[in-house]
Amino acid sequence: MKKYIIALLFIMFSLSTLSAREVYSLNEEWRFFFSHENSGDSAREVVLPHTWNNDALSGIYPYMRTSANYTRQLYIPQAWSAKRIFVHFKGAETTLDLFVNGMHAGSHSGAGVAFTIEIS
Q1: pTM reported for the whole predicted model
Q2: Which of 7, 16, 81, 110 qualifies as a FRET site for 96, CA 20 to 30 Å off?
Q3: Cα distances (angstroms) measured from residue 110 to each of 12, 90, 105, 107
Q4: Cis amide linkage into residue 77, ω under 30° from 0
């Protein structure tokens, strides 16, 4: 019986060290601009999570209920071409549409709820 327990513990330890996925933070280097600005020329660099109405308190711009754009350059190595790639969001206020290279990759509705979109 003792041998089975030791074998089971060994297997569990071995499996726990295997990683089925790699996780990278994408919170840095986002560019933000309001939709009514019509282009990213005036985009400001932000770090996620970001709430533009928090900036209203410091007088950067007034409190608004509107749409905005967040853009980010993302390098995906050629070696990943056969892999499935997902972007996980810990939440987005109200709705989100995700575009990758100008193509719609997915959308989500529901404030403050985590979700994942495949971008492979």
Answers
A1: 0.72
A2: 81
A3: 37, 11, 17, 10
A4: no
